Amino acid sequence: MKETLEKTQLQPLQKITFPEIPPATEAEIIAYLHRSFQIAEIAVKAERDALILNICEQLNLTASDEELQAGGDKFRLEHKLLGASETLSWLSVQRITVEDWSNGIKLSLLTQKLKELLFGEIVDNYYIQNRQNFRRIALSQILVRELTQAQQIAHQIQEENASFCALALEYSKGKQSKENGGFAGIRFFSELLPEIAAAISQAKEGELIGPVQTTLGYHIIRVEKLFPLELTESLREEVLESFFQAWLQGQLNFALLGD
Questions:
Q1: 33-57 residue pLDDT tens
Q2: Which pLDDT does position 5 carry in this prediction?
């Protein structure tokens, strides 16, 4: 049956001579973006880059040859382009020139300099004034609709040593916690529902909290890990990026309205 079906499907194709397909030209790529309705998304990114370069030029922000070299080295290391042949092969696959690649590295460096210039000090001061908002916690939860059921589940965990993971898989109404055996991820306290943040503000690692009532239902929460309160490099970059993106979107909106 399978062979008959394959032969039937292939018969019309036997009359076709398949041509060699050359690499798409830039015009063909742009045409594809138009007909696949992706041109607006790409245009926004292009406008963003143009605005950044324009502002950097006005502020006399530049990238030295040494910085470009260091940026290129970092990029190659991150993408495992450890030699010239690997780099050239990657450029070929990406269909870009060395100059295109260098311009991308330059834009990345200038963007980081602009972020630091505009918001570097603000981020540090903002963190100091809002340190509690940056407390992070890893937690698990079971979310149910009825208080009675929540109390029964909490009792099973505390008094009968029942598996939190198994109960989450069976009963939790929260999509993420149900799929992950109760684990709800690592969160900033500022991201939590106010009732949950208040309930776990003094909790210790491994402690079971709840049921805690919110608009979603009743939460049984287990504190998996409390992270030290410190402005790590990755956290600082995350906050810096959020400030910069909000500012950049405002500038883009203003520039487009001005046109």
A1: 999 999 999 999 999 999 999 999 9
A2: 47
Cβ atoms within 10 Å of 172's Cβ, excluding its own? 25
pLDDT in tens, 10-31: 566 667 777 788 888 999 999 9
Q: Which domains are seen in the chain, by residue range? A: 43-133+230-259 (no CATH), 136-226 (3.10.50.40)
Cα dihedral 182/238/255/111 (nearest 10):
-140
pTM (2 d.p.): 0.67
